[in-house]
Amino acid sequence: MSNVLINFHSTNTTSMAITQFNEVVAEEEKLSHECKQLLLSLPKEKGWRTPHLYLYQNFWCQPTEIQAIMSFQKHFQAKESDIVLASIPKSGTTWLKALAFAIVNRKPSAISKNHPLESSNPHDLVPFFEYKLYANDQLPDLSTMTEPRLFGTHVPFASLPNSIVKSNCRIVYICRNPFDTFVSIWHFLNKIKPRSSPSVSLEEAFEMYCNGVIGFGPFWTHMLGYWKESIEKPDKVLFLKYEDMKGDLSFQLKKLAKFLGSPFSVEEERKGVIEKIAKLCSFESMKQLEVNKSGKSIKNFENKNLFRKAEVGDWVNYFSPLMVDKLSKLMEEKLGGSGLSFRVFH
Ligand code: A3P
């Protein structure tokens, strides 16, 4: 890891870019001795936002995330009533967090005016273990959280702390077709990377994605871990698909509410509570909120970049026939026979 912090005096834009790069390097310099030692032993590949991604417990991850995940694995104690929302990045995590929060915290038979989701980003209401709670070598005080506690994570199933796996707490996984997920990641990472680094071309990014070298990837291992558990233990893991939610959100919300132990009553259905939740959490509503147009609810990520197009099938605007062929074959090879399949067109 480089010890060199770059000093540069030039245009404002360039020096801002160098500052961002320095920040990333400085963050890595602050890692614990234990984490730095571990990194020395891990396979690494070129990263997008950070100089490298490391292969930690069979998934690719940034150094600061690895330190936070180690702490999460060591210290987190799940409660039976906890709800963990899991995903691989760009699968609809923000949407799922908003929906689950609105379901769990709904007032009897109504969605209140001045709802917290109108003034807070979902990532503030449902914190990530690895980006917020256990970030920066801190140990969070979770005793003040109201129950059921809602958490978010991108950590693969196989690397979740024992207490989550063994307790009766519930996990909801949201999955999205890899074609659209890839396009979403490519846009997102090029927006958040330090301006000093060159943009990653679609072709180069696609190679990395297909090689599994993407945050928390390979995507197939991540999806299959939660998929298999959802089949073996359907009361423990609910597996949702982004495309199904775009297709029939009411149906998926009923399923989600029931799984979370908070099914909609006939009265609530009659009063349109499901539709109100759907509207409150819709892409169109959330994207125009001031709180989602500014600020950084997750360190280094501007909230506005969490909302782009939210379409099923946007990949057709980016994929060449060769890319379609390659990703289709890869999905067949990695996911074939698992029963996991996706709708890829609108
Ligand atoms: P696109 O880049 O295809 O537009 P995540 O929340 O896991 O980072 O996923 C981001 C993707 O979900 C982005 O997809 C984003 O636009 C989309 N998204 C964000 N909020 C959404 C919402 N309320 N409903 C549906 N999709 C949403």
From TrEMBL:
Signal peptide start-end: none
Residues in Sulfotransferase domain copies: 81-339
EC number: 2.8.2.-
Keywords: Transferase
Pfam families tied to this protein: Sulfotransfer_1
GO molecular function annotations of the record: sulfotransferase activity
InterPro entries listed in its UniProt record: P-loop_NTPase, Sulfotransferase_dom
Family matches, as SUPFAM superfamilies: P-loop containing nucleoside triphosphate hydrolases
Protein's UniProt keywords contain Transferase: yes
PANTHER family associated with the record: SULFOTRANSFERASE SULT (PTHR11783)
Family that this chain belongs to: Belongs to the sulfotransferase 1 family.
Record's protein name: Sulfotransferase
Native source organism of the sequence: Quillaja saponaria
